[in-house]
Amino acid sequence: MTYHAHSNNPAGNWHPLQEHLAEVANLARARAAPAPWASEAELAGLLHDLGKYADRFQRRLEGQDAGLDHWSQGAWLALSKYQAIAAALSIQGHHIGLQRGDAQSLRGMQLESVAANHPQHLQLSDPDMNRLLQRAQADGLAFNALSTTALRNGFAQAVAAMLDVRLLFSCLVDADFLDTEAHFNGDAEGKRPRPAGPTLDAQAALTALNRYMGERIRAGTQADAQVLAARESLWRATGEAAQTAPNVFTLTAPTGSGKTLAMLRFALEHAARNKLKRIVLAVPFLTVIEQTAREYRQVFAGFPEHFVLEHHSLAGLGEESEQRDAEGAQERQRRLLAENWDAPIVLTTNVQLLESLFSNRPSSCRKLHTLMESVILFDEAQSLPQHLAVPTLAALSHLSSAYRSSVVFATATQPAFATLHEAVTHHAASGWKPVEVVPEHPKMFETLKRVDVAWPKSGEKRTWADLAAEIRDTDQALVVVNLKRHALDLLKVLGDEPDVFHLSTNLCAEHRRVVLDRVRTRLKAGQPCRLISTQCVEAGVDVDFPKVYRALAPLEAIAQAAGRCNREGRMNAKGQLGEVIVFEPDEGNEKKRGYPTFAYYQATEATRTMLSLNGGLDINDPAVFQAYYRRLYDLNNPASQNAELSQAIQALDFIGVVRGYRLIDQDAIQVLVPWADRWDDFQALRGEAEQTGISGGWMRRAQGLAVSVYRPRGGLPAWAIPAKLRRRGTSNSGVSDEWFILEGDYYDDTLGLKPPEGPQVFIA
Prior knowledge:
By secondary structure, the chain is an alpha/beta fold.
């Protein structure tokens, strides 16, 4: 008889199992080509659906059976006959996710154990593995011996070994998804594989980048001569460093030095020199990624569609309907390419990239194999949370040393991660010894000194009234505070003072964009402009104030705020420097916590301690930041943090690692708000949600009018109602647990969202 992998597609064709297993094996091996364990990936492809040779599974395809496990047979064969642990775990997890790799769990993969006590309460499609193997061989499948295995050294360094498993898992699940999709998209002529994404032509991309630099950046800049010289110095340094072999790098350069395009030059030249396949840029904030995406699209205008692929929450909400217009087709293609990062340049977030590196889910891990032989750039690298630093560095180091990838940590405030080398070696033998792309960066910081910093004296505090009085006497000033309630307190004292603007994530994205446009226009025209903001203005936002007030904070945050002061160096041409004034707020209640998190408080205390020892700190000296980070690491010892994650890693527990590795600790919800400037859009979106429910397209259109807040711990918010869900174009009684619509007059044109419970729900 003919055994099938999948039921009939719209053309009426069934999917032969032999054809599916052979094709998945070929695709998996092709994806694993850069790795020495490509034959193990091929074996995983051949065995992953071995249980479908069972009579019961064939009846299941006809709707006559259910509740079957068709993967455990292939997993146990891979383990027992070939000692292919990574293949066995990948086969076991290709539907249910990666499980555990400890010795007891591996022994538990025996079919007798699985049949007697199935963890998912399923039944084996056939407990006789030999019968299934005989049918597969009779079907023309050959199972050859392995040339090498992914886990040559076992699990000696757990983070590295678990990454090896995830990479093989990625090769398998992507191959399985693609072949299955090709079957169900098939027609009378056979399967229809999806079109491949564009490939990286690094030389052509370099030509486009150099042209953009000449025609758009150098020709249009208003920066002074020193800034221009520093930018050219960085440009040359990245080109020289790109000629080296794949490695782990740091790129330390001051704010305003042209770092974004310089590291793209490094990536392209490095890819061309080493024949690397892809460039992935990860950033911590959506504000940065949108700004970078706009510039990259300008650089590569005229290149194939999706040469630059965005994969983040704002880009991943395409219309789910069957629209056939060009825009809809492009969005569908973008979503397909985002599933496995099949594009030359990928722009994504730290959350998407790093949490995938520690995931166990097929959909999240599916893209990981594309990180082999790639250049992976991390902008604003100081944002990596300390409690995740050691395992993250271990995974990235192993990715570089074992799979010819280069990892670049770029920032103006480079963390002292090299001091964690010994701790990292416990998880990955290669440790963490990065090479600096710009060895002369201290001189660049000195050349690009654009601000003087005034530090508070010991015990000196300023009330909001004192600060407001100073601001009133200043035509153009930026004030950055640590908490949203601090911004609201200062705005309250300022009252109806003209030319005052407010920026925080209380404001929806469109509102923030309009505020920043107004601020930039007034700054450029020399008009009065006072901006009161939370830390969100420090996330790569391009504004240029002559004076910045910054509440005492972690040293890297103070440096980021200073990057919004005299940013283009135009004051230097007049023999002046920008003025940064660091102050400590006097709240009048010492019991109130003036910082968003405990880690933020600890880092602020490290800054305060260094101030007390030195009397002042030079934020233009990279050595000061190295001393600051070393002090901070001595204080909280990143290697000892996150006991839950450490225990899961040592237990080789892929499920537990997912729970312990989270960049954002608390879930957020999205609230659609009635901003006055977009009232008609709000009304249309609310009407659509009430009448037909929300879809992916609705979410995409709503993102600009949404405010993210922490999910209330005590239940759903009383001031917002959950949006109805739309299923397959019809109204459905279900409601979303992520999207809400604001009810009541709780959105202010200046302050943004002001729910009756107060500001404690807000994300800082």
